[in-house]
Amino acid sequence: MPLTAALTLALPAAAGAGTLEFTYPGSPLPWLVAEILAVLLVVAVGALLFLFRFVLGDKRVRLKEEVRQTLEKTFLEKQREEFKKKTEALNLRVKEVRHQLGSVFIKVKNLATTLDPGQVFQAITEMLSQEIGAARFILFLHDREKNELYPFRWQEYPDSIRETLTIPMATPHFLTFAFRNRRHVYRLAATEDAETRTLVDQPPLTGTLLALPIYTLDETFGVIHIESFRSGREEIDEGDLRFFASLGSFMGMALANANVLLQTRDELTSTKQLTEQQLAEKKRLKEVFSRYTSSELVDSLMKNPGSVRLGGITKTATILFSDIVGFTKFSEKLTPEEVVLSINEYLSRMTEIVLDNNGEIDKFIGDAVMARFGVLADLPSPGLVAVRTAMTMLEEVKRLQAKWLQEGREAFAIRIGVATGPVLAGNIGSERRQEFTVMGTTVNLASRLESLNKELGTSLLIDETTYEQVGDEYRVIPRENISIRGLVGTRRVFEVQPIVSGAMGPRGKIIQFKDKMGSGKAEPHLPAPTEKLPVAPGAGSPEEAQPSALPEGRPGRQE
């Protein structure tokens, strides 16, 4: 009998009485197929899950590796960059320290041979400000009689501290501690030291960043209070502290050599006030003399006043005179205020040009300028320097002419005379008023050459001695057998014109002298016969004389 399976279900009473019967086939094949399909389905799902996990897992591993490498690379680059910056900063610091040490020990070496207390204290002050870089500081000295510290030198503090600030040695303070123990006190380190912690910001002087004693093996002279550095730093490393400590002992040795202990407080203070007055006077003198000569020359003369004797010496120098053409006519067209405005602008520019070329302003004679070259400063070729200066002055006047015309103002031209030779330089005048100036035939000749420009229709005339220094840098035209008012006989003078590139101009060629012994230079080339040049003052017609350069429409009278 075949195997059958029956399922009988009891239906609810509402559906009525009865039964349902399901019969399944007795063959096992369908069940086998179903089981195989189920197994295959499980295997497929497992395979898919394995593949999915493998792919995602590999990606995740690769991502982790890339992130790790990126982080390592970034970290290494950051480390290298920080190392590079630290190395550069260290190298820069080493250079600064070397420069600082070099400058300091040069000054210390000089201090060792200085016996003047004023010079020693001045050098110490400069050392604190320049080499150490202290912005605000006070140098205290010890008053043995009153047993207190009093301010002697300071920077960025009011002068009133001289009378109001003293520190008795019995006062618990950074400065008194540093003085008694002969050791420096550094603020940041002191806050961590039980012995000095209570000394921070004690009156009467707060804000001490560094207290530096000045001492020798036998004596302690004072202490330096440093409140701040120009760099703004507050941290000081051990190397700097050791350097500051050694510097304090060097300063002490310099003060010992100058016998500071043999002078009283009043004597030292009066000497300091005298030194300050001398410095103020020196500054005032520099400001005054800088108006007449270059500031570099003034510095050189003040550092080495023995380099020139102002009492009266004879020197070979070059004198330059310049004057305005037609000043009377020019001034008649303007108000006094306008005249002063133009003249001051002109003289200011001429002064700058002279000083920029190592010249010296001797004086202003009305609207005329008298300058000298090679009197206070030694110049190898003062004549050449003076001619260069004169050409620059003429070019600057052309620029001023264009500017004034553009502004609707009257313009003028100038003429210049230059002569080289011996001059007497010295203080000339009375007992009540003197001035340093030069005198002699060379001065008179330069003045006459300036005036001669009117007769020859030129702008710049030089004498033969000056010409010998000019060479072929400019276009030079000789004027033969010229009589000069106030001077005996006739002489040869030279007109100087700038070399125009590509054209020689109407007045001739570049001319050079050949000396009598034969130097191989070209003989003087006289102007062509077609040029009618005067041979004496007043010779020739007015048409033959070329007027000084003036802007069109602004003719000036020939004076």
Characterize this entry briefly:
The protein is an alpha+beta fold and 559 residues long.
Walk me through what this model shows.
By secondary structure, this protein is of the alpha+beta class. Among the domains are: 117-275, GAF domain (Beta-Lactamase, 2-Layer Sandwich); 316-544, Nucleotide cyclase, GGDEF domain (Alpha-Beta Plaits, 2-Layer Sandwich). 43% of the residues lie in helices and 21% in strands. It is built from 13 helices and 16 strands. The chain has helices at residues 29-111, 117-131, 161-164, 174-181, 187-190, 238-257, 265-289, 295-303, 327-332, 336-356, 382-406, 441-456, 464-470; strands at residues 6-10, 19-23, 134-143, 148-155, 167-168, 185-186, 210-215, 220-229, 313-325, 360-365, 368-373, 413-429, 434-439, 460-462, 475-483, 490-497. The strands form 3 sheets. Strands 9, 10, 11, 12, 13, 14, 15 and 16 form an 8-stranded mixed β-sheet that branches. Strand 3 and strand 4 form a beta hairpin. Helix 1 (29-111) runs antiparallel to helix 2. The chain is flat, with a radius of gyration of 48 Å. The N and C termini lie far apart (161 Å).
